[in-house]
Amino acid sequence: MKLRATLLTAALLMAGLACQAQPAGPRVSFNGSLGADKALLVIDGEPRTLAVGQTVKGVRLVSMADDQAQVEFGGKRQLLIYGASPGSIGDATAAPGAGRQIMLSAGAGGHFTSTGSINGQTTQFLVDTGATSVAIGQGEADRMNLRYRDGRRVMTQTANGAVPAHLVQLASVRVGDVEVRNIEAIVIPGQMTHVLLGNSFLTRFQMKRENDVLLLELRY
């Protein structure tokens, strides 16, 4: 019951944050193709049709193949999968020499959890595809000595009203032997049983679920 209450609170916090927090780059999804050289992209919520080589709002369509489209923004490329959740194109990169796949098994309640680390500090993660960013309770952030108070302060709406939170950039997030750098996170007041692995981390991966196994593979 305590875990469910914590997850519900976190979900409410993320719902409020979604309207206020801005990712490092535009959020882009691949929603269809028009012939062999045109793609329907949704850029920051706005549908746009791009031909290969065309640039709109700083996003360039590099190539298309089957159900995939490769785009570029600010010198960074990202492979988009048809129908997948929007991903933000920013400066998050995999650490040199790191692994590229994470395999998780569902635990109690069907949740995917794992031990990992943030900036070298061990913590417990829970995959949450409904969370905008990696979400960390303030108590856990203090334990890991994160300097979140130096981050941008935002207000987010919860069931108990508006509460202050802080946006931070994590130097590294590691799960298993996969380490990804420069990940956006939010530190929220109170205690949480897990750090939520939200979409600022998950959109760096292609996700595939088979029964009770979740496979995450780095896109680039």
TrEMBL record:
Q: Which PROSITE patterns match?
A: ASP_PROTEASE (PS00141), PROKAR_LIPOPROTEIN (PS51257)
- Which species does the entry assign this protein to? Roseateles toxinivorans
Note one Pfam family from the annotation: gag-asp_proteas
Q: Which InterPro entries match?
A: Aspartic_peptidase_AS, Clan_AA_Asp_peptidase_C, Peptidase_aspartic_dom_sf, Retropepsin-like_bacterial
Q: List the keywords (alphabetical).
A: Hydrolase, Protease, Signal
Question: What protein does this entry describe?
Answer: Aspartyl protease family protein
Specify whether Secreted is a keyword of the entry.
no
Matching SUPFAM superfamilies: Acid proteases (SSF50630)
